[in-house]
What we know:
Keywords: Endonuclease, Hydrolase, Nuclease, Protease, Serine protease, Signal
Distance between the termini: 31 Å
Region (Disordered): 335-367, 384-408
Largest sheet: 7 strands, antiparallel
EC number: 3.4.21.-
Number of helices: 22
Radius of gyration: 29 Å
Helix content: 25-40%
Structural class: alpha+beta
Oligomer: single chain
Protein name: Serine protease
Amino acid sequence: MSTPNRFIALLDETESRFQQRQKVREEKEQLLSQGGIFAANSEDAIKRRLSHLQTPPEVGVTITDRVRGLIPPAPGIPAELERLLGTNDLMGIHFLELGTWVSRAVVRVHVQSSQGHGYGTGFMVSPRLMLTNNHVLQNATEASQSRVEFNYENGLGGNMKTSIFARLAPEMLFLTDRDLDYTLVALNPESEPAAHGWLPLIEEQGKVMVGEWVNIIQHPNGEPKQLALRENLVVDELERFLHYRTDTAPGSSGSPVFNDQWEVVALHHSGVPERDAQGRILTVDNQLWAPWMGEHRIAWKANEGVRISRVIAHIKAQALDEQKRQLRAQMFETRPPVPEASVPLRQPEPQPQNETPTVGAQVNPDGSASWTFPVTVTVSVGTGAHQTLPAPPSTPAASVPPPLAPAQAEDRELTEALATLSTARTRTYYDAEADMDAAEQYYRSIQSGQSAQALFKQLSKLVCTTHETALSYKPSMHVYPWVDLHPDLKLRSIYSGLPFDPEEFIREDFRIAQERAVRMRELMLHEASLGIERLEEEIDLLEASLPFNCEHVVPRSWFNKKNPMLGDLHHLFACEIGCNSFRSNIPYYDFPDFEEAVRDACGKRQGEEKFEPSHGKGAVARATLYFLLRYPGKVGDNNRELQQDRLMMLGTWHSDFPPDEYERHRNAAIFEKQGNRNPLIDHPEWVESIDFALGVGAIS
């Protein structure tokens, strides 16, 4: 996952190369349209390609005639050459089988860096080594914190396969180069990455020519594995790069680019974006693009890949110690298994018979689940599941278990959420008079003229005792359909201010919740072989890989993802995933103009200790101060949580951005759902009279 500045610089470099080659490229494309593929390539390039295809001598000798457009007769010509000549575009069925086989080596990269969590694509190039982009994994520190995921894809029938995660081991080997935009890194051997095969890299030239189609296997935006099949036409070949055009199937950073023989010809890394008249990058739906949206939203007019022969040459030229040389040598001296001689993918080890058997998971009232290992572990995946998970067998099944069908309750909840959204068009958005009466009754026990400490304690008791309904964390049910709507009935990101269709968020979160449930069930079936710590890590990775479009103003990690804090609507706001990741769990901060910070459409951040949102400062301040009233002592005064010296900053944000109709609507809607109110919305003047320091916990 690249920083915004690095990614923009990469786009500029790619676009500059593309523009410099415009005249050459236009000539090649004209030759392709008029004289075919041989007319658009040099005689040397044609000879190398035919030699690589092992074309019979009697076919390959008349190169000059072919360049002139004299096509040899079809009988006896290999199918690969017929496709080059344009005389036959049919593909043998083994083409798809081989494509499925090589796709096993393509992985989803979970990038954990100072910019938050993100995704890229990578692929195994030896039993232990993975190749991706430098702008995906820029240094060994990022690699040591990141993971790769095998099998994140749909199987037959559209069901998700069982994912297998692997740690990276940059201490064993880590090579990278910014100019060629590649990173080669070792995987931890405990994950048995060799079981998934790898893609051999071929240094010799002749693997592809201008005018050929290439195929890309990828995880676009971290989504399940996808294939852009013969959708990218090679239009130019530079010294170090290939340019290929597409209208429908752009590449994803770190993806392998294949020829029709499923040989890797390039490492996809960037593209040339469409721009408006002012030179601003456009999205696929013709809107202005911002870095938080991700590269998959850019409208690309061309793709660029680094020629794999150049990457290999650079890797071979690096001076390494003996251990690293041995790992590198496996790339070129070890051949992957062929499909006929394949070994099955690694299955979890059976549970030893002398161990205490595992019992089935039980769902607790707060939405978490407990398992016995033989000690009890309680974790929460944030979805507030309602059904009891089945007990796993004593030994894992030999094949991937069928996924759970969506529960009837989930179907009913989706219907209910969409119905609530539908009625929003006819409901009164905010009844000021009725809400004023409700607030007057709510605060009738609060005495005026008392000390700041006494007022804190009185309000804290009030919001606690009236919090009658502790909701499970289901933003698609409780936040998006009504609570967080703005007067135009749109959702708006709390940090970027961008509008979103609430139905889109509702359906997406339900889809994610169902996918989480399926993958959680798969984890539970293998819990005995994972162990306690590994299971907790896998659950954390699962949550990071399937995030909701919802922001906890007080980050979940600050209160260990526990209820009722997890589902308390007063600090839950709609927020696109990009901004959610950009903020991460960093405390709020107000940057002076002279202080350096990484800037984004979502706000500014510096390191892991400072984040200033672009929008919503007043709302997040009041939500944070409410949290201190409702849950005193739950968040600590340390550099990764809420420091007492920033309470004054929150008070300033509160006064600079007072409550508006949107917040008053939210407050009334939440009061209706969970029973308590945010006093700082109803009585903004009280903020100066409350000692919020009483709500901040001790240094942890």
